[in-house]
Amino acid sequence: MDNGKVKIYELSKELNLDNKELLAICDQLNIAVKSHSSIISETEADNIRVAAKKLVAKNGIPKTEFYTFTYEPISPHSDSRNRPATPQQNHKKEILEIRKPKILQNPTFNNRDRTANTSVQDNSIEVKIASEDWGYKLLGSAINRLILDLESQTVLKTYSEFQQRREFANKLMKELFGQKPCLFYIRRKGQGKQDGEEIWELTIATDRDDALLPSRLENLGKTLGLRAAVEQNGYGGLQILSTRLLETKSGYADSYALPCLLRLLPNYKYQINIPSAALTRIAKMPICGDHVPTEEQIKAWQAFLQTEKKIAQARQFCVYFLGHNYGSATRTISFDIDVDLATVDGAEENSLDTEDFWQRVRRAKNEDIRLFETVTDRRNWRGSRQLGLIEGFDSQKCIIRVKLERELAEKMADGLYQLPSPGFLYFQAAGDIQQIRRKEIALDDLNQGRTQNPYLGNFFFDASQARPIKNTVQLQPDDLLLSSANPSQKAAVEMVLASEDLALIQGPPGTGKTTVIAEICYQVALRGGRTLIASQANLAVDNALSRLVHNPVIRAVRKGKAEKVGEEGQPFLEEKVINTWLTNTATYCENSLEKRLNDAKILSNLLTLSPRFLEYIKLEKVFQQEQNLLETCKANLELACTKQTNEYQQITAQISVLESLKIAVDNLLNEESLVDLQDSQLINLWSSLLPYISTDIYVQYFSANLRLAINLASELGIINPNVSSFGLAAWLHNTVTAKISEFKTALDYANHIATVIIESESAAQIYRQNSQLLTEFNSTHQQLIPVQQNLQQKIRKLQKRQSEISSVIISLDTWLLTAKSTVLNSLKQSFKTRQNLTVESIEIPVELLTLIQEYHYVDWQKC
């Protein structure tokens, strides 16, 4: 604290609260803070202290639960490495309601590279999306590109340092996405460069009025696309690799796009990862990649459809009819027409000449035609009626014959409808026009990625781009609908079941393609799927259905008009299919019941014979066991016999070889001449003998001694030739033996010299030791000479002292003879005279007195 200011993290320590708990209290008290390092006033700090104490005292909320009760973060991160959520993360959730378009996608894809969202939604379904905070980091050229697109080249040049450019780019990102959440469409683009890394593409949505573009982009009339690398666990947030301005149509949703309401915050400041919930949602989306067709491919198809439309429009006509004749006995009606009033579409300016009109009528035979009571326009189109098929015409009588539809004929017969007279007949080639419209819708869906298979854009224009088969399917004969299917047909069905995108089957007539189609429908139905059979020819569809009539497992429905459907397809029309299925099911049940009754009769007859049958089964088991035992014994005996036979043959062959080798060795030993060491026969003989003698103990001794001899010869300087062991032995015998005597003499000389050398060495060793001792003695002698002289002087003194002491001893011995009486007398005299006893009065010998004085004599009287 300083100057009345308090930092959040210091206050959190004071109150024993976590930073995030303290930030939650600040949010409740409307105290503006950004992070735990923010500074507040002392007054605000006091308010926080009071609020924290009151809350804990009132609710008894433990510190660890305070954050949970007082605040709800926007998106908890499951990653253990995430740092505590910042206030920017903890704002109130913003919800965006999105109406998703109807999307059909494949049910199963690999979770990593082609997972699909298996949802079917219509335009009325509302999806609520909560806003989330994601971290990001601008990398490399993305910084420069962002500044260049949003500002200018001049502004970019003003920031010469990379750090400055990055800070400015982050300011632009904050202006765009860091304040309010923005709706992005996220698409998976595939594997990144690093392991476990994936590339995402984020585009700001422009197809919604309630998801507005940032003002800067709104002024530019563009949307922004981000290309980012994301780690598998979302750690580190978005690593933005590139940015680019896009046309607003690029911000439209498709089946690859996942809408996300995001606020992007720089990770160098906030350290926010991508939430695990978002990762789970995105992992369910298919990988977009390049599965959208190119602009050139779309243009080519659009041009083709325009050509088809022109061709179809070139067939249409509208003609005025004056009257008609209709009898209830037949469904055919003839219209009297006015050819002079024939037009292309009912407009007078688009009139047709007579020849062109009849050509168009001729090409329209067996096509549907409509009836209008007034001239055709957009307003009365719904009031028109489908008449039926053009059955024929008569250009001379100006008549067009039409076979009425069954439903219209029945209404007219019942008096529920009456044909107008006059009116207009209008032929539009409705089938062709409808097909073209469907193609246009399908092409638009393909361009927008709204296809059931999201990878259609790749293999639709190039079949080789379809994903290859990974998991094969093996069908057993019992699994087939038609047991008569040949191996080629079975393989074709297996290929279709295993293909993820596309399977093409080609074959000339009569090869069983229809059988394969029926089998595919059956196998798909067994697996819970559905199959659409479509063809330009009705007969092909009806023919495929005819193969399924006898099997009630498949519930087929034939779409189409009854008069255009063949005999095989009639039972499967919508109005008849239930009755057909029930009939087939009843027939199947009756057949199955009859078969079961027959099986029951057979079983009843078998039950009467069951005791004998059980006994037979027991005997059969015993017999089978004994038979198995005999078979095992027989197999073992045959195996042993075969083994013995093989061993006998091997031993016989070895004996033959050994005999030939023995003869060769005997011949070699009987030769008196020297052996040629390089003789190929000798070398081959040794090679042949080696497998037989390698384990013999004597041969091993021989080889060991041979190696020892060779080593000794090498030490003697004799180089051995590179031959076999036999050759080496012969070489030693022929060469080394002759030199042994010479080596012996040399060895004797060598031994004598060695003895002399050893003795000389011993003497030299003794000499060296004595020399060293002598040197030490001389050194010691020189040191002892002064000591010796000093000792001699002491000896002379001692000898002198000894002679003195000897004379003293003699004098003392002499004195002692009379000492007792002398001392007594001296004592008595001193006592009488009352005088001190002195040495002189005792008359001690002079020599003794001299000696006593020399040795520190002390007057005994003073003692």
Q: How would you sum up this structure in a few lines?
A:
This protein has 863 residues and is α+β, with helices and mostly antiparallel strands. Residues 60-92, 99-125 and 857-863 have low confidence and may be disordered.
Describe this structure in words.
This protein has 863 residues and is of the alpha+beta class. The chain contains 26 helices and 16 strands. β14 (385-394) and β15 (399-404) form a beta hairpin. α11 (295-313) runs antiparallel to α14, α17 crosses α18 and α22 (697-715) crosses α23. The protein starts with a strand and ends in a 9-residue tail after the last helix. Mean pLDDT is 78; it is low at 60-92, 99-125 and 857-863.
